[in-house]
Amino acid sequence: MTGPETTSPTSPTSPQQAEDVEQEALVEDALVEEISIDGMCGVY
Amino acid sequence: MTIAVERPQGGRLVDQFEYGLDAPICLTWELTYACNLACVHCLSSSGRRDPRELSTDECKALMDEFERMQVFYVNIGGGEPTVRPDFWELLDYAVAHHVGVKFSTNGFRITPERAERLAATDYVDVQISLDGATAEVNDAVRGQGTYDAALRAMANLRAAGMKDFKLSVVCTRHNIGQLDEFKAIADTYGAQLRLTRLRPSGRGADVWDELHPLPHQQRELYDWLVANGDQVLTGDSFFHLSAYGPADGSGTLPGLNLCGAGRVVCLVDPVGDVYACPFAIHDQFLAGNLREDGGFDTIWKTAPLFLDLRSPQTGGACTQCSAYDSCRGGCMAAKFFTGLPLDGPDPECVKGNSETALAGDRERPGSSQDHSHTGTVRNAPVPLTLLRTRPVSACDESPLVSQQ
Amino acid sequence: MPVLPGAAWELSPSVSLRPEPFGALAYDFVTRKLSFLKSPMLVDVVRRLGDAADVEDALLGAGVPAAERDRYVAALGRLAASGIIRERVPA
Q1: B346-362 as b/e, with b when 16 or more CB fall inside 10 Å?
Q2: With contacts defined as CB-CB under 8 Å, which chain C residues touch A29?
Q3: Are strands B267-268 and A32-36 parallel, antiparallel or unpaired?
Q4: A10: distance to nearest CA of chain B, Å?
Q5: Which residues of A touch B259 (CB under 8 A)?
Q6: Which pTM does this prediction carry?
Q7: pLDDT per residue over B80-138, tens digit each?
Q8: ipTM of the shown complex
Q9: CA gap B144, C80 in Å, rounded
Q10: Torsion angle defined by CA atoms of residues B124, B130, B135 and B139, in that order, rounded to the nearest 10 degrees
């Protein structure tokens, strides 16, 4: 999940950040996403 | 179909969920307000049965609705659900009607015979409640003898061959230091550890100030979850702690990191009231009643409260914070019952943005209902004053310690 | 195991597939995995699998455009990896 500030204004995109952006794009492009049945808030 | 605000196409799952679903993914169903215990933090203020409880037939009709709606599973709780005489019959009915069940119990009634039966039943999971890795810490919150009862239940389940049942812990000021021990207990019994958040709901409102983790303990908990998270469940309770992670969101804890109330989950209470979430039992979060408003499906799809929760929420002041995308402003119920504004920070905001508000004057709404025991309870909570004396040996705390 | 266009697949019997405005949710009662299918067309493909001669047949029947084919086969691959769909055993 990306926040409003993903990189600082002065530093270049790091390899990790580039990979994260690519990973995010892959998730958004993929037609299937898996989540945990226990991962919903509001069930005790 | 849900009468919804225009929703975006595709994109992330979590964005879709904010607009709601045609049926809950899972939900909590409190079967009874009756309970043999009187835990100090009970989120449903349980103890005494409500005479208006749903009948066996009404419970079955509700499960028929769950089946039609394809609700995947139901967490059955209470009070203590096993005190209902029809509990085991209802469990069988759920399974026969394609509704998975996990039920939460204090373990008193999980006898060896019951454990055998549970181990042989598919699609039924058991969750044992425990709030201390020692009887001293646990019984102060849950009551005399409750630690022993929980471990006895787990031993029975293990002996019956039940695998991966849940050991569920509410994290408090007094047990944050016991996380490794909780993990060890879960491992001993072949259970999966679940850590959840203490919320100021029900009787929890009365003890929240003394029991909720301190800021440094929240950090400890977050670090522990990051280190052990893939083996521990949380029910997405701690998304407010994700704000400890870096601004790019890489330190987010597993889970949807989203308030599920009225969108993917909800609560059905023992008298058929439907609330947005089990931590929000209050008229403000009451969507309707099964008997009066046309049944569960109608309420889920059309209740004005739910439609409102499924429209874009204003994050208010929190949207300006760099951590907002991780924490989403925290827990609605926690804010409500501590008397904080819903569009402001969570009372346990890790950046300390609620400190001033908590220290100041605030009006705390009480619960809408209270089924607490009024007389003495056999297994009453043991006051924490005993903690001042260190036990001489581990055996002082638990007669079972030699068996671990 | 990759999902090959010429192979015959089906929805696993322990899976509950529930339509939603965005596509569907699929829950496997045995593995307890929950999957989110992000397009109604993908849901249509999955529903057709069991009766279709093979994957190719299901893709055609659902009207998957040629340009999207690889994306849909990849999605089926993910569903196969989590056990939501399985290869049909010849009768």
Answers
A1: bbbbbeebbeebbeeee
A2: 71
A3: unpaired
A4: 16
A5: 41-42
A6: 0.88
A7: 999 999 999 999 999 999 999 999 999 999 999 999 999 999 899 999 999 999 999 99
A8: 0.90
A9: 50
A10: -110
